[in-house]
Design goal:
- The chain is built from six helices and two strands, in the order H-H-E-E-H-H-H-H.
- The chain is mainly α and 128 residues long.
- The chain has a single domain, classed as Multidrug-efflux Transporter Regulator, Chain: A, Domain 2 (Orthogonal Bundle), CATH 1.10.1660.10.
- Strands 1-2 form a two-stranded antiparallel ribbon.
- A hairpin with a 5-residue loop joins strand 1 (48-49) and strand 2 (55-56).
- It is globular, with a radius of gyration of 17 Å.
- The protein binds a DNA duplex (9 and 8 nucleotides) through helix 2 and helix 6.
Length: 128
Amino acid sequence: MVETAIDNSPQPIPDKLYFRIGEVSRLTGVKQYVLRYWESEFAGLGPKKSGTGHRLYRRKDVELLLEIKHLLYEKRFTIEGARKWLEDRRKAPIAAKPAPKPENQAELFDSPVDGIRHELREILKLLK
DNA sequence: CTTCTGACA
DNA sequence: TGTCAGTA
């Protein structure tokens, strides 16, 4: 069984200046349409566009993508939760102890996966 | 051939 | 989140 899908193994980021979405997808193991979707959810993800509108990702973009992927898939954060986490981390770069802000706690550990929400919406529509 | 947007599931 | 069309 030759799995041709997409391997999620940590790939070394090539020493190039720009990457196309297809390459970024293979490098990060994240589907192309998901990469485009995340752009609409995370400020800070704004790949330059070539003259013909093609996305041009830089190393930083790929690294941020890997981080978001980890927060969403490994830690099972919500888009909102991941956003907060990244925001708070921006303010406190390598702070010793990111004093837990009680206000964010709820969102940080807000768990429902967005994909599940979508499925629930579909099911509810079928039940109407 | 690859990526892009928009529409729809 | 996943797929498709028509395109640049």
